[in-house]
Amino acid sequence: MRKLMIAMLALAVVFGFAACDNSTANSGASQLDVAYIEAVEKTATDYLVGETPDPADFTFTGYDAAGNVVIENMASTLFSATKAFAKGDDEAVFSYTGAVTVPSIKVPVSVYEIEKITVDAKADTVKDAYYTISQVGAVAVDATSTVEGGDYYSYTLVDKTDLVVTATYNGTSEKVIDADDYIAVLGTVTTGTETGFAAISGANWATAAATTLSGKDAVVQVSMAGTSAVDYYPVTYSDNAVSSIYVDVADDYVLYYGIDESSLASATKLSADDVVAKGVMVNGQEGVALSSSLVGANVVKYSLTQNGTYSTDITSLDLTGATSVTVWAKLESAKGVVPDFKQVAVSASVPVEKDSITGLVVTVGSTGFTLDTDYSATTATAPADFTVAYEMASKTAGQTLKLNATTNGYTINPTTFSSKDYLEGTPVTVTVSAGGFSKTVTSKIATV
């Protein structure tokens, strides 16, 4: 009996320790049970002043108020660093964006001051040419910039692609810095030494940069917040001038000639919104409006023949008798162009097609149809404010049609609105048919 009691006491002690073991997560718990979170580095890392810790490099564990593990290996996407490391810091601080509010998570880490920064900008893919106007791509754009032409900003910040920035710290230790953690700005070495550097901020890139950089060596300065260590690499900086022009015709723009095989009428004009000369810039940017502030005050003129009379108003060009259209354009009194810009005419063809009927246009008025009237009779007339016309591919007004006419006529269904089925003022559905087209509209029964 005594042996049995000792054995049972031993089991009780074992189960008691098991009950107190909070090293594994409670499978029935959720984020709502988390009272506080602790984190540890996955791998011991040397951090630098100016760097921002990445939550993905840490393991986060959630605990309840009793100290029991609620969730192990919490998703790093639920955490964000509260700030970059500053001088004197010895811990990384994270905030939690999950379902509950918990205290900031602080993790002891090693933080060092940067003693030297070295930039390797030798890769062929490193951007080493900058312009007063730059193309928007995978380049960081200052939040105060404005859109030109819907596709391009008036300036861009320095492109960090394939730059290798290495920091020296703690004597001889080195670390490659993430692009998000260092600052790169365009500027100059005004006195031939690094001490004469004058930074060009993103906010005045387009306006002040050209003046500040004029006649000086352009460089990019790389630095980190919280340290005076910097390095430079040379770049070129130029006005983003017009290198060539072209005539742009909108993809869906078509000129139509008459359905009766006639040529373009004299009233048909080119659309300045759909046919316009645009510029190609030396930085590769296309689609620049030649009258914009990007290139100064230019005079663009258009003609229907290469050596004809050119006009600044494209809508004034006379299309009488035309069966095909080629638009020529040239840039006169050009400003903001490359020094060897050739002021020659360029051209583009505008599609010309025979107009065609594409459907029906039905206008429904307020009068309505009369009860017990036979609208299939040849003598019948529709309400005066119920009109039918052909819809044309050219979007111009087509032939107006007449009810039941032999030529250019239309029919309706139903043809009779019986007083047995309808009341005055009630809505009716009417299907209009003509020339192989049909359209269903809602009208009403007239009130007598």
Architecture overview:
The protein is mainly β. Helices cover 6% and strands 37% of the residues. The chain is built from 2 helices and 32 strands. It has a 6-stranded mixed beta sheet with strand order 27-28-29-30-31-32, with no helix packed on it. Residues 1-24, 135-155 and 201-209 have low confidence and may be disordered.
Features:
about 450 residues, mainly beta, 6-stranded mixed beta sheet, 5-stranded mixed beta sheet, disordered N terminus
**Gyration radius from CA atoms, angstroms:** 38 Å
Strand content: 35-45%
Main sheet: strands, sense, barrel: 6 strands, mixed
Number of helices: 2
Q: What would the principal axes of the Cα set say about the shape?
A: flat
Mean pLDDT metric: 83
| Strand ordering within the main sheet | 27-28-29-30-31-32
Low-confidence stretches: 1-24, 135-155, 201-209
Helix-and-strand structural type: mainly beta
The overall strand count is 32
Distance between the termini: 111 Å
Helix percentage: under 10%
